[in-house]
Specification:
Helices cover 33% and strands 17% of the residues. With 392 residues, it is an alpha/beta fold. It has 2 domains: 167 residues, 3-Layer(aba) Sandwich (Rossmann fold); 201 residues, 3-Layer(aba) Sandwich (Rossmann fold), CATH 3.40.50. The strands form 4 sheets. A 6-stranded parallel sheet has the order 5-6-4-1-7-8. It has a 6-stranded parallel sheet with strand order 11-10-9-15-16-17, sandwiched between helices. It is elongated.
Length: 392
């Protein structure tokens, strides 16, 4: 896979740049700009190289139809302020565009095509659509690792028609994930949360042979507690997952990987309640388990202290209510402490995990925080991502 840094001549070249700018919007305003901030290096790199930049991106799922609420306009306006450079948003139908007319004004250096998912051909990975997009440029750069698990036209087929490169953020993401999957410093620990254990079984099974410790928290830990005969009250749980849990423990024994789950919990009668500490056997029929308890926190902090690499995906509890955020915050603080000592390599990912880290303004206190979601998980499961395969 070639990186864009390897391309010698970029001056006045039309660069088709695929980005993931799918940021959350509320009434037209960006509520979390993390994804935009992460692509600033590649934009600034291409500006310095005097490239002509054509940005392709998307917001939401318009399903091949124009939806003004999913326009890239707010992103263009935010990015203009960040780089102090004019950005032109092209609303014209992409099929009417041609290479000669894109940069008629010599002052234009960055243009955005409107939401690429306004075209149904994008998600169909349409060959002719890819060929037309490629005709607008001299080369292609994918700096949208988070879209690279999608076999879409602007991620996959387009590489058949242009010299194609990985972007700076793409390379950073791959390197970070390699350090927790193939270039590992041991002991290595995975802390994994979320509500459904079935959605993470592929990840857990792929990591157990490589990891020393797997710590299961959040809603998915309730399934393990129930499997072990512990009362979980009204807590979120998944049906028919006994075989999955048995498989996790059997696989862990085979590879000498230790599996940890809560030893005590924090409960409430509803999501807005205050927290109450309880031993596992004391959980009532009308309790919701919403966080890990102090014994579990201390156990996890001790494991982190004795690890050289940590992967974190999924909060420890219902952190949206501050009364049930202590477990997640303490995990974050333990990782940050080790990071400050330069005695650990830390990777965190997943929407809720990123939101939590953002709440405490700690993105820069981890070695790498991935905003990639599905692509992040699929890579960790050992799957080959269509976007990576296309670049190769």
């Amino acid at each position: 896979m070639k990186n864009i840094r390897e391309q010698e001549s970029l001056e006045n070249k039309n660069v088709l740049l695929r980005l993931d700018l799918n940021v959350p919007l509320k009434n037209g305003f960006i509520t979390d700009p993390t994804r935009i901030d992460k692509i600033l290096p590649v934009i600034n790199f291409l500006i310095k190289k005097n490239s002509k930049i054509i940005v392709i991106s998307h917001i939401g799922r318009p399903k091949g139809k124009i939806n003004k609420d999913l326009s890239l306009k707010p992103i263009c306006e935010y990015l203009e302020k960040k780089i102090d450079k004019k950005i032109k948003l092209i609303n014209e139908n992409v099929f009417k565009l041609n290479k000669k007319n894109l940069f008629k004004d010599p002052k234009d250096q960055i243009i955005f095509l409107e939401n690429i998912r306004f075209y149904y051909e994008e998600e169909k990975n349409d060959l002719d659509f890819s060929k037309h997009l490629a005709g607008l440029a001299d080369l292609y750069v994918n700096d949208a690792f988070s879209c690279s698990h999608r076999a879409h036209a602007s991620v996959c087929k387009i590489t058949e028609f242009l010299p194609s490169f990985a972007g700076l953020q793409f390379e950073t993401e791959i390197n970070a994930l390699k350090k927790v999957t193939s270039e590992i410093k041991k002991p290595i620990t995975c802390i994994i949360g979320g509500s459904k254990i079935s959605t993470k079984i592929g990840l857990i099974k792929n990591l157990i042979p490589k990891f020393d410790n797997v710590i299961i928290v959040g809603g998915m830990a309730n399934n393990i507690l129930k499997n072990k005969g512990k009362p979980i009250g009204k807590s979120v749980k998944e049906e028919n997952c006994e075989s999955i849990i048995n498989e996790i423990f059997e696989t862990s024994k085979k590879y000498s990987c230790s599996i940890y789950y809560p030893e005590d919990v924090m409960v409430g009668k509803n999501l807005d309640d205050n927290s109450q500490a309880k031993e596992l056997n004391d959980v009532s029929y009308d309790d919701f388990i919403l966080d890990i308890g102090i014994k579990t926190i201390n156990k996890i902090k001790n494991i982190i202290e004795n690890s050289q690499t940590v992967l974190w995906n999924g909060p420890a509890g219902y952190f949206e209510n501050p009364n049930f955020a202590k477990g997640s915050y303490e995990i974050a603080k333990a990782i940050i402490k080790k990071n400050n000592d330069i005695s650990i390599y830390s990777v965190a990912g997943g929407g809720d995990t990123v939101a939590l880290i953002n709440q405490i303004n700690a993105i820069k206190d981890f070695n790498f925080v991935s905003t990639a979601g599905g692509a992040f998980l699929e890579y960790l499961e050992g799957k080959e991502l269509p976007g990576i395969k296309a670049l190769k």
